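Figure caption, in words: inputs first, then the predicted bound structure.
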Amino acid sequence: MISSKARIGVFGGSFDPVHLGHLLVAETALEQLALSQVLFMPTNIQPFKQDANVTPADDRVRMLRMATKSNPRFGVSTVETDRAGVSYTIDSLRTLQAQYGTGIVFILGADMLKMISQWSRAQELLTEFSLAVGIRPGSDEKEVTIQADDLRAKYGTMITPLDNIPIHVSSTELRARMKNGESVRYLIPDLVRIYLEVRRKEGERRFAHTKRVMDLAESMAGRFGEDPEKAALAALLHDYEKDPAGGVENDLAHGPMAAEAARNLFAVEDEDVLNAIRWHTTGRAGMSRLELIVFLADTVEPGRTYDSIDKLRGHCLEDLERGAAQVLAELKKYLEKKGLDVSPDTLAAIADLKGRRQPQQQKGIRHIGLFGRRNND
Ligand code: ATP
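Bound structure (adenosine-5'-triphosphate present):
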């Protein structure tokens, strides 16, 4: 059993993007030092990379969350990305130490060890915190030992060399591979790979919508007892085949097309997720709760600004079926006003939802009889 006093590891870096080298170092540190958890701490602006073109913090944090979700002892700290400006490790580690009230081990790769004495307030950092150093292919083991001995002698730093399996991968190399259209499969977690591909294809403005749909779908899933990870995955891929120049035809077809891409390009096999992607454009009769969530999150995400949005959003958060019935009725009205055909699937969805809500309404009628007064709820 892990004692509540067990130290936590904090792994700092740009994580642009997070890759298997990072995850393996963190897992080795967990085991070797019997840490209670490892927090990945993405930098906001790295002191030595101030002019570099770094992916926005929001995306790096989201990718880290996806990469670490399956390990209950991994977490993500936004202490640096929440704080504006240049990130100084000493400030962040002190904040986390105060927050967690426990010893902290700072985790870093061997390439960083040789630079650490040049970091801001290095003396304080190296006297107050212990280090765990991961091996990177290319780092000379003898040199690392000498550097560690020097720091121990000068600052009394506790330094543990990690015996991680060296993985020859860096974020720089991965970004170059993606730019050249080369595969990064098996080098980064699958979800992160999908995230990066959707982000690349959609571009900043459209991807901002996708992220809002992901957030809302995930929180609605939590609220209505569905799987938030499935909701987020379906939301991530829902517009993958949307073509802004594709007109009405693509407006209807991009749902089914995206479901095919999800299956064929990204190996998504879960039928509920595929259906949530497939039917998010029109709806259909017999939608599952996951399908309703993705459909509604897409329609009422916070970036949407049409007239009745606040009221509709409120209804969707209260009751999925009721929200969906109202959203579909508005969609029908809108299409008719524009002189566009209403898809038979949309009409079937409206009829189906009416049927599903009927039993509740009948219950209301019995209620009137029993108590002899009208229930206005
Ligand atoms: P970049 O290529 O952009 O510099 P990177 O792959 O080195 O990125 P960072 O986010 O800068 O990744 O690294 C965060 C921390 O992880 C650093 O301490 C770095 O030394 C360590 N690290 C990165 N890749 C590996 C790897 N393959 N093996 C061990 N440690 C690694």
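Strands lie at 8-13, 37-42, 74-76, 104-109, 130-134, 159-161.
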